[in-house]
Design goal:
The chain is mainly β. The chain has one domain: Sandwich (Immunoglobulin-like). It is built from 1 helix and 9 strands; from the N terminus they run αβββββββββ. The strands form 2 sheets. Strands 1, 2, 5, 8 and 9 form a 5-stranded mixed sheet that branches. A 4-stranded antiparallel sheet has the order 4-3-6-7, with no helix packed on it. β3 and β4 form a beta hairpin.
Length: 113
Amino acid sequence: MRVSVLLLAILATTSCAGLTPVAPAAPGPFRFSGTISRVDGGGVSPIASASLTVVDGVNKDARASSDGAGRYVFPSLDKGRFTVSIAAPGYAGITPVIDLYEDVNADFALKPQ
């Protein structure tokens, strides 16, 4: 019994030794920004007044909206994983999952409904 417990402990220790951490040590806060655009047969153009809301995970209920050039910014969010809902009238909404462990610039495109 001792040998199997010891062997199991050795296997568990060696299998974890090669893993690298997912998140850097920086505590945040971090900036999450980018653009919201329209994609259709006519090309790509910015969407003004799109709403972005963190719906779960860290930073739940944080909100932002896009300006006239389609730019949005969350200037100070805690690190971690969360889902953001992106919506604009006349467009199909999306809900990407974000892993925020450093400043991130992410551009999103919405399709007309």
